[in-house]
Amino acid sequence: MTTFGLDSGTYGSGRSDIGAEPALTPTEGIDDAVVDEISWRKGEPSWMTAFRRRSARILDRMPMAEWIAVNMPDIDINEIDFAVAPVQPATNRATGQHESDVVARRIREQIEAQGVLFCDIDTALREYPDLVKQYFGTVVPPGDNAFAALNSAVWSGGSFIYVPPGVRCEMPLQADRRVNGERLGQFERTLIIADEGSQVHYIEGCSAPVYSTSSLRSTVTEIVVKPSARVRYTTMQNWTPNVVHVGTERARVEAEGHIEWIDGTIGSKLTVKHPSVHLVGPNATAEVLSVASAGSGQHHDVGATMVHAAPETASTIVSRSVSKDGGVTTFRGLVRVDDGAYGCTGHVQCAALVLDEQSECRTLPRIEVDERDAQIGHDATVATIADERLFYVMSRGLSHAQATSMVVNGFLQPVTSALPMEYAVEWSRLIELQMEGSVG
Fold first, then answer.
1. CA 237 to CA 217: how far, in whole Å?
2. I need a labelling partner for 406 at 20 to 30 A (CA). Which of 103, 110, 303, 435 fits?
3. For residue 397, is it within any domain?
4. CA-CA distance, 139 to 252, in Å (whole number)?
5. What angle (nearest 5°) sits at the alpha carbon of residue 403, between those of residues 401 and 405?
C-alpha cells in the first residue's frame, strides 16, 4: 500500500496557491492507489477515477520525448508533493478578481446573469458533471505525451469556463497561479468551452517565490471554440528560476470560429510549451503571439503548432524572443495542412535578439503540406543590438541598462502591444529589471 505524507492547509479564493493545500507524497511512483486516494479526497465520480487510472497506466509505459529529456533537470517524481485541493462550497471560489468582496460579488452576479459559468474545475466537476464529462480529455487525451498523461493522472485545480451560445462576455475573466512550496507539483487542468457565436477573454498570471529545490508544473489546457465563437487566451508567466514548467495546451476551433492566443514567458529554469490549434471547421482562423525572455540559467522552449484540417482556414504565428547572460531560447513552429484542406493560408514569423556571446537562440520550423491548394510561408531573423544604436539611445541621458531595456521592449512590441494595458506595463517593467540583473 502506498503511503502518503499529509500537510494541512487551506484553499483560497481568487488565486490558485499551490502549497497552501494538503499534499500527497507517493513513495512508490504513481499507481492506482495514488490516483484512487486523490479521487477519493476530492469526492469525484467513478468515471473520473477510471480516467485517472487509465492515465496512470499510459504514463507507466510512455517515455518522455528525447528532446525534452535532454534539457530536463533531475526531478524525482517520487519526491514530488501532489497538491490536492479539499472539497469546499462553491460560494467563494476563484472568480479571478482581487477587488473588494462587494466588487467581486457584483462581477460574479454580472457574468452569472449571462449564464456564464466560471469557477475552479473541481467545483465544475461536482456541480456540472455532465458538461465536464462531455469535453474533459477530448482536446488533449492522456496519450498525447508523457506530461499530458502525468497531468491526467494526478491533476488538481485549474479553471473552468463555459459561455452559452450567443453570449458575449465583455469582462475579461482572470485567474492567478502561484507555487508556494518546495518540491511541489502543480498539475492544473483548464477547460474552456465557448459555445456557438459566443465570445470570451481569459487571462492567466503565474508566479512563485524563490526556493532552493525545484518545483514541477505540468499543466493541460483544453479550449473548445464552437462555430462562429471567439476566444482570446492570454497567459503571462513570471516563475522564479527553481520552477520547471511543461504545458500541453491545445484548442479545437470549429467552422468560422477564431482564437487569439497570447503567451508571455520571462521566468523559470525550463519552460516547454507550444500552444497548438486544430482548425477543424471551414473558415476557422487562429493567431498565436509568443514572447519570451531568457536570462542566466534559463531555457525557454516555446513556439506553436497550427493544424489545418478543414478548407479555407487561416493561421498566423508571431514569435519574439530575447536571450541574455547565457540564456537559451528555442522556437519550435509547426504548420500542417491536411489533404483536402484546400484554400488554406498560414504564416510563421520568428525573430530573436541575442544580447551577448554566451546566449543562444534556436529556430526549428516545420511545414507539412499535403494539399496542393495552400499558401504557407515562414521567415526568421536573428539579431544583436548594434553599438551605434545603444550609443544613440544613451546619448539621451540613459544608462546602458536603461538603453538596452528600451531597445528590447521596442523589439518585443509587436507582441506585447496585444496585451491588456496593465500586463503590458508590468511586462515592460520586468524586462527593465532583467536588463539590470534583478530578474532570472
1. 12
2. 303
3. yes
4. 7
5. 70
The DSSP letter of residue 399 is -
In the chain, which stretches have pLDDT less than 50?
A: 1-20, 27, 86-100, 211-212, 439-440
> For 184-240, how does the pLDDT look when each residue is reduced to its tens digit (9 = 90+)?
568 999 999 999 999 999 999 876 555 445 678 899 999 999 999 999 999 988 887
CA–CA distance, 432 with 410 (Å, rounded to integer): 12
Q: At what angle do helices 421-435 and 400-416 cross, to 10 degrees?
A: 150
- Sign of the CA dihedral 111, 206, 275, 426? positive
Number of domains in the chain: 1
- Report the chain's terminal Cα–Cα distance, integer Å: 41
Segment holding 416, helix H or strand E: helix 400-416
Q: Classify residue 46: in a domain, yes or no.
A: no
Q: Do the Cβ atoms of 428 and 434 come closer than 8 Å?
A: no
- 427, 185, 302, 367 alpha-carbon torsion, rounded to 10°: -150
Question: Can you read off the three cell numbers belonging to residue 249?
Answer: 495546451
> What pLDDT sits at residue 25?
54
Tell me: the pLDDT tens digits for 391-410?
888 888 888 888 888 888 88
What gap in Å lies between CA 115 and CA 199, rounded to an integer? 13
Rounded to two decimals, the pTM is 0.86
414 within some domain: yes
Q: Give me the domain span that covers residue 427.
A: 386-440
